[in-house]
C-alpha cells in the first residue's frame, strides 16, 4: 500500500478512536473510575502519544518534503504548525492523565481538556490532509514516486 493510502487508513482509525476516547471520558464523568473505562483509556494512551508522533513524523519525513520540492504555495507549512499544536495537546493529555492515574483527582479536568483540544485540532487536520494535501500529492508525484514514498528519505 502506498504511503498516502496507509495514512488515510490510519486517519480513519484515529477518527474512530477519538470517538471512543470521548465516550470513555463521558463514562468516567458519569460512572467514575470503572475498570472498563480505565483499561480502555490505558489502551488509547499509546495511540494518541507514541503512535500519533510516528504518524506525523512519517508525513514530515517522507511526504511533506516531496511536496515542498514541487509546489511553492502548499498547505505544508500550515500542516507543520498544526502538528506542533497536536503534539502539545498530546503531551498535555499524557502528563495530566498520568497524574490523575496516580490518584490526583484534580488533574482530571486538565487532561480531559487536552483530550478535547487534541480531538478538535486533529480531526480538522486529518480532513485537510485527506481532502487537500494528499490529492495534491497524487497530482504532482508520478505513480512510481508515490510508490517510493515510504523508502525515500532526505539524505
Ligand atoms: Fe498530519
Ligand atoms: Fe495525518
UniProtKB/TrEMBL annotation:
Stored InterPro entries: Hemerythrin-like
What GO cellular component term, any one, is given? Answer: plasma membrane
Q: Which Pfam families match?
A: Hemerythrin
Domain Hemerythrin-like, chain residue ranges per copy: 5-137
Give the superkingdom in one word: Bacteria
This chain belongs to the protein called: Hemerythrin
Amino acid at each position: 500500500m502506498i504511503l498516502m493510502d496507509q495514512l488515510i487508513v490510519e486517519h480513519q482509525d484515529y477518527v474512530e478512536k477519538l470517538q471512543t476516547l470521548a465516550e470513555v471520558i463521558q463514562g468516567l464523568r458519569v460512572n467514575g473510575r470503572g475498570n472498563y473505562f480505565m483499561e480502555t483509556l490505558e489502551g488509547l494512551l499509546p495511540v494518541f502519544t507514541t503512535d500519533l508522533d510516528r504518524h506525523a513524523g512519517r508525513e514530515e519525513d517522507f511526504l511533506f518534503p516531496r511536496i515542498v520540492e514541487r509546489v511553492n504555495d502548499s498547505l505544508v507549512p500550515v500542516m507543520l504548525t498544526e502538528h506542533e499544536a497536536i503534539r502539545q495537546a498530546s503531551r498535555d493529555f499524557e502528563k495530566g492523565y498520568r497524574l490523575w492515574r496516580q490518584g490526583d483527582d484534580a488533574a482530571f479536568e486538565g487532561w480531559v481538556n487536552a483530550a478535547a483540544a487534541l480531538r478538535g485540532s486533529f480531526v480538522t487536520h486529518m480532513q485537510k490532509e485527506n481532502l487537500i494535501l494528499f490529492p495534491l500529492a497524487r497530482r504532482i508525484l508520478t505513480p512510481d514516486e508515490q510508490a517510493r514514498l515510504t523508502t525515500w528519505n532526505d539524505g
